[in-house]
Amino acid sequence: MKRITVFCGSSFGNEKNYELQAFLLGKVMAKKNIDLVYGGAKVGLMGAVADGVLSENGNVFGVLPRFLMSKEVAHDNLTELIIVESMHERKTRMNELSDGVIALPGGFGTLEEFFEMLTWGQLGLHKKPIGILNVDGFYDLLLEFIQKMVDNGFLKEINQKMILVSDNAQELLNKMENYTAPEVGKWIKKGNE
99: which of 1, 5, 144, 193 fits an S-S bond (Cβ 3.0–4.6 Å)? Predict the structure, then answer.
């Protein structure tokens, strides 16, 4: 893996450890010579993960829609800031630039981006590892809900296993480096097929 996209909050959340773990993830990535691709802002966890990479002289590529430049406050010290016209173009560009995805704590935007990348993987549009850095159990309830999707026949277990989870940045990156994507098959059957 040469580059990883990180989706995360543009705020810090209520726990200081979210910021600390975002910064640490950035440091660990840079020490492993993995570039960061992210939303381009200097605020919240977005800024923390970028600052972590930059603190170890790593490369950071920000992708920011023009209309968010004033709201998310573009980071000044990036290797490259790529300005795009829409949120869709942002996700597409981030996907093109990266070899994997990690979700840190965040809100609706983080979940939307994370699930779109998961869906693309499920459909075989990419074979990239997708991880959750589950800081302080932030994603525990979501993971329980995903298990409910499996239990109720809406998600195959093989697709559930596409989500790599750890509360430790180094361990998560190791899981991602050893990931093999499932073979994509037909998931909808007609009649008694």
Answer: 1
What digits encode the pLDDT tens for the residues 88-127? Answer: 999 999 999 999 999 999 999 999 999 999 999 999 999 9
Residue that has been written with the tokens 């960061």 in this structure: 36
Closest CA to 53 of 44, 61, 63, 64: 61
Structure tokens at 75: 């980071």
Question: Quick check: 51 and 30 in contact, CB under 8 A?
Answer: no
List the one residue out of 143, 18, 37 whose CA is nearest residue 98.
37
Q: Which residues contact 21 (CB under 8 A, 6 or more apart)?
A: 104, 133, 135, 169
Phi, psi of 16 (to 5 degrees): -60, -30
**Separation of alpha carbons 62 and 34, rounded Å:** 14
Q: Is 83 exposed, middle or buried (0-12, 13-18, 19+ CB in 10 A)?
A: middle
Mean pLDDT of 40-58: 96
DSSP 8-state assignment for residue 66: G
Q: How many CB atoms lie within 10 A of CB 129?
A: 24
- pTM score, two decimals? 0.92
